[in-house]
């Protein structure tokens, strides 16, 4: 029996770029200690008060079918947060609650892409982006950015890729690069979207993790409110990765159609999880800063630890929980470097090529272990890189 081409072509064939990660997990399962700097998972867990709210809601009986677009109170709370953070008037009618940010990315592309449409995304990219586009039947087209420009996409590059496309997916603060898009970059993006009549899908799940500059939601830019779909999530801001709860913020008529999609796919998010998310959001910005604080601190540790040597160079770590490190001085590809590092030091990092052509010659380090172990791992990584350098 033949499977659909839609399902068999999601990854585009070949490796998904996570071979080092999978090998590290096999080593751990075999009892070999590995220092994992590979995945964006907090080293703290969801706060007990949030879990308490979740348990209380479940015990109170909110375990049946929840309203498919999200509970009225959670949607209102999300809308109020977005209004306060961006200045754009937002109501519950602009919000669909989804089972995590990934579900929101899929829903957003389903809303704006027809079968065979071209959908743009920025390279380097979060690993699921091209597969998400393929999964909705569209064709992914990458816009490659350069480390020499701090991975900021240029207006010229976007405009060159735009003819024939229907949408553009961006992510700031960015995973994997740590870049925070500048006001000029976002202005350029907005202008190209309007000039070429593109929908903009803005992945803003790291909006609480900004170390330099400021987060600007492109939905707030002139002329962009009616053509922007924003994807948000509780995963990174409140260490609720396993709870699988996020949202799409979009024009009302888009949300109305996304409600139909949710009815025929997820049929909503468990009510007790929604109540916990509402409780978490109502604790305010102090809670979000507490969750972000370890990564802010480790960002400073990264820059300090890498001072005084020239084998490993940290690109500007402006946001998110990752550092993109330039390892080109070793003469190795990032995949070879990551494989050899895992063998020699039992440290797992992500090769830059896992995230596209733009990150070739780089590795992504997740700042997700305790400070002492993190600094020790960075020092070992630098020593390993020094041993790798090919003789002249």
Task: Write a structural description.
The protein has 392 residues and is α/β, with parallel strands linked by helices. It has two domains: 5-45 and 286-388, Aspartate Aminotransferase, domain 1, CATH 3.90.1150.10; 65-284, 3-Layer(aba) Sandwich (Aspartate Aminotransferase, domain 2). The chain has 13 helices and 13 strands. It has helices at 5-8, 19-29, 48-59, 72-86, 101-112, 129-135, 155-161, 183-195, 252-263, 271-281, 285-305, 334-345, 371-388, and strands spanning 35-36, 95-98, 118-123, 139-144, 165-171, 199-203, 228-233, 246-249, 313-314, 322-326, 347-348, 350-351, 362-366. It has a seven-stranded mixed beta sheet with strand order 2-8-7-6-5-3-4, sandwiched between helices. A four-stranded antiparallel beta sheet has the order 9-10-13-12. The mean pLDDT is 95.
Biggest sheet, spatial arrangement of strands: 2-8-7-6-5-3-4
What portion of residues belong to β-strands?
5-15%
CATH topology of the largest domain: Aspartate Aminotransferase, domain 2
Number of helices: 13
Structural class: alpha/beta
* Cα radius of gyration in angstroms: 21 Å
Offer a concise description of the structure:
With 392 residues, the chain is an alpha/beta fold.
Short key terms for the protein model shown above:
40% helix; alpha/beta; globular; 392 residues; seven-stranded mixed β-sheet; Aspartate Aminotransferase, domain 2; 14% strand
């Amino acid at each position: 029996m033949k499977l659909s081409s839609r399902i068999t072509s999601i990854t585009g064939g070949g490796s998904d770029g996570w071979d080092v990660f999978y090998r590290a997990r096999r080593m751990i399962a075999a009892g070999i200690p590995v220092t994992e700097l590979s995945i964006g998972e907090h080293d703290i867990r969801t706060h007990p008060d949030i879990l308490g709210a979740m348990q209380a809601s479940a015990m109170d009986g909110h375990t049946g079918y929840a309203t498919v677009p999200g509970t009225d109170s959670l949607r209102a709370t999300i809308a109020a947060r977005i209004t306060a953070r961006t200045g754009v008037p937002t109501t519950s009618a602009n919000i669909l609650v989804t089972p995590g940010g990934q579900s929101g990315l899929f829903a957003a592309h389903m809303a704006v892409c027809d079968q065979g449409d071209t959908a743009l995304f920025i390279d380097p990219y979060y690993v699921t982006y091209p597969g998400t586009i393929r999964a909705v039947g569209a064709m992914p087209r990458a816009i490659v950015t350069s480390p020499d420009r701090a991975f900021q996409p240029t207006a010229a590059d976007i405009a060159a890729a735009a003819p024939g496309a229907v949408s553009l997916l961006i992510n700031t603060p960015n995973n994997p690069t740590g870049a925070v898009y500048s006001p000029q970059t976002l202005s350029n993006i907005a202008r190209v979207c309007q000039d070429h009549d593109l929908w903009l899908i803005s992945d803003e799940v790291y909006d609480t993790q900004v170390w330099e500059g400021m987060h600007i939601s492109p939905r707030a830019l002139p002329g962009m409110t009616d053509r922007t779909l924003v994807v948000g999530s509780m995963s990174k801001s409140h260490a609720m990765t396993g709870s699988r709860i996020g949202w799409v913020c979009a024009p009302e008529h888009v949300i109305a159609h996304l409600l139909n999609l949710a009815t025929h796919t997820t049929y909503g998010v468990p009510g007790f999880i929604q109540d916990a998310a509402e409780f978490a959001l109502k604790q305010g910005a102090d809670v979000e800063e507490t969750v972000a604080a370890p990564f802010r601190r480790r960002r400073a540790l990264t820059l300090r630890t890498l001072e005084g040597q020239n084998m490993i160079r940290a690109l500007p770590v402006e946001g998110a929980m990752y550092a993109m490190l330039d390892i080109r001085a070793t003469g190795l590809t990032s995949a070879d470097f990551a494989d050899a590092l895992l063998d020699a030091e039992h440290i797992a990092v992500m090769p830059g090529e896992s995230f596209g052509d733009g990150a070739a010659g780089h590795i992504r380090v997740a700042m997700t272990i305790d400070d002492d172990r993190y600094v020790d791992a960075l020092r070992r990584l630098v020593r390993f890189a020094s041993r790798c350098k090919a003789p002249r």
